[in-house]
Amino acid sequence: QVQLVESGGGFVQAGGSLTLSCVASGVTFNAYTMAWFRRAPGKGREFVAAIRRAGCGTYYADSVKGRFTASRYNAKTTFSLQMDILNPEVPAVYSCAAGRDILLSSLRMPDPYHWWGQGTQVTVSS
C-alpha cells in the first residue's frame, strides 16, 4: 500500500523559512516523479515544485522560483521542500504527490499524479 506522509508545516512570519518533508512507502521511490502542490481554502491545487525520477530535472512554479528548493533522497524515500523568504499569503495545505511516467508537459498539473499525502498546513503571517 502506497503512503505519503508530510510533516513540517506550521506558522511562520513573513520572510521566514520552513522545511516540509514527505516520506514515501510502498513505492519504488526512485522511479516516481515527486511533486508538491498547495491548496488555499476554496481554490484548486496549485503546483509548487516537482522532481522527476533521478537525474531528470527539478521544476518550480514561477511564484516560488529562487525562494523554494525541492530535494529528494532516494535512499531514504524522502522528498523535501525548503521554503525561504516566505510571503504573507492565505493559509494553504501543502501536499506531496507521486506519479509514474508523467510527461514533462503534464507535471505541473495534479491529475497525472497517482498518490497523494494528507497534507500539512502552512500559515505565513504578515
Please describe the topology of this protein.
Elements: E1 3-7, E2 10-13, E3 18-25, E4 33-39, E5 46-51, E6 58-60, E7 68-73, E8 78-83, E9 89-99, E10 115-116, E11 120-125
Parallel strand pairs: 2-11
Antiparallel strand pairs: 1-3, 3-8, 4-5, 4-9, 5-6, 7-8, 9-10, 9-11
Comma- or semicolon-separated keywords:
mainly beta, 11 strands, 7-stranded mixed β-sheet, 4-stranded antiparallel β-sheet
Account of the protein in words:
The chain has strands at 3-7, 10-13, 18-25, 33-39, 46-51, 58-60, 68-73, 78-83, 89-99, 115-116, 120-125. The chain is mainly beta and 126 residues long. Strands 2, 4, 5, 6, 9, 10 and 11 form a seven-stranded mixed sheet that branches. The N and C termini lie far apart (40 Å).
How many alpha or pi helices? 0
β-strand number: 11
- End-to-end gap: 40 Å
Shape: globular
What is the subunit arrangement here? single chain
Helix content: under 10%
SSE series = EEEEEEEEEEE
**Which radius of gyration do the C-alpha atoms yield?**
14 Å
Share of β-strand residues: over 45%
Average pLDDT across residues?
Answer: 94
Unreliable spans: none
SS-based class: mainly beta
Task: Summarize the main sheet.
Answer: 7 strands, mixed
In short:
With 126 residues, this protein is mainly β. The protein is 0% helix and 51% strand. It has no helices and 11 strands.
